[in-house]
Automatic annotation (TrEMBL):
NCBIfam families: oxido_grp_1 (TIGR03558). It comes from Aeribacillus composti. Keywords: Oxidoreductase. Its EC number is 1.-.-.-. CDD domains: Flavin_utilizing_monoxygenases. Residues 1-296 form the Luciferase-like domain. One of its GO terms (molecular function) is oxidoreductase activity. To bacterial alkanal monooxygenase alpha and beta chains. InterPro entries: Bact_Lucif_Oxidored, CmoO-like, Luciferase-like_dom, Luciferase-like_sf. The lineage of its organism: Bacteria, Bacillati, Bacillota, Bacilli, Bacillales. This is LLM class flavin-dependent oxidoreductase.
Amino acid sequence: MQVSILDQAPILNNSTAKEALEQSIQLAVLAEKLGYTRYWIAEHHNLSGLACSAPEIMLPVIGAKTKSIRIGSGATLLPHYKPYKVAEMFNMLATLFPNRIDLGIGRAPGGDAQSSIALSGNYLENVKKMPKTVQELLHFLYNDYPKNELFSSISASPLPNIPPEPWILGTSIKSAFLAAENGISYAFGQFMSNEDGRQIIQTYKNQFQKKRKQQPKTIVTVSAICAETNEKAKQIAFSSFLWNLQHHKGKTLDFPLKEEAKQQLLNSDEFQQFQKNMIIGDPKFVVHRLYELENWYEADEMMIITITGSYEERTKSYQLIAEEINRKKS
């Protein structure tokens, strides 16, 4: 089983954005040492709990500190940008770090309405144009604009020997169709979707194979928290839940929590829903579930997102998972 990491660069309790970004760099270095296939970093805007608004700034730093792991955006939010500029940026990365660059493409705003207006004006109108802008982006990446078309005389320099690998990231049938119609790889965000992911991935594969001879490629991204014991993993998951309450919903909680308040939150419907799409447990349980999901989705690769109350717990979780996978392979 191939496993990878999706990083949202969370600003954890009592830390700063600078510390969060430095931790993301350290996580990518650790991921390479542990044998993860790829490391992607997400793009978010005007969200107080997340530090990375520009993956294209982080990736060259990470590339310079690693040697072989694939690195990329998870995702670059295309409605905010012109395809030509995105192609230039990722072609530069692919020139600097040959055969290592992934360009994840998303349609989400990645923030609130005000930040979307500041970035791109009419965001919703740009979303409607996604099929056209994805095609435009791919022409620039592959340097194959048909002759006599508007942009046929320009290239997104520098042109690398091996282009960035494009991926569509999504959680819906619409994104699956978009990936299949363009003949590119598809990453399904199971961790943030209540849709029938198996059907979505199967739709992608069926539509892809109708049009092309090559094989489709899929990633399923899941949320996982691993610790030495199941009980410890659940406690860490609770701290992750508290972090979400604070940073994503603007709620202020008094620390340390009184036992009565802690039990109320632990038994709340909100906490139960929070755990629903997560894998929480010791290494054997988490890796067993990853293999189950890989088989269920018939995915080529599993990608893991982990947010915990501390950086040490987060890196330990990734370490325990990698060690258990390696143990099973040996």
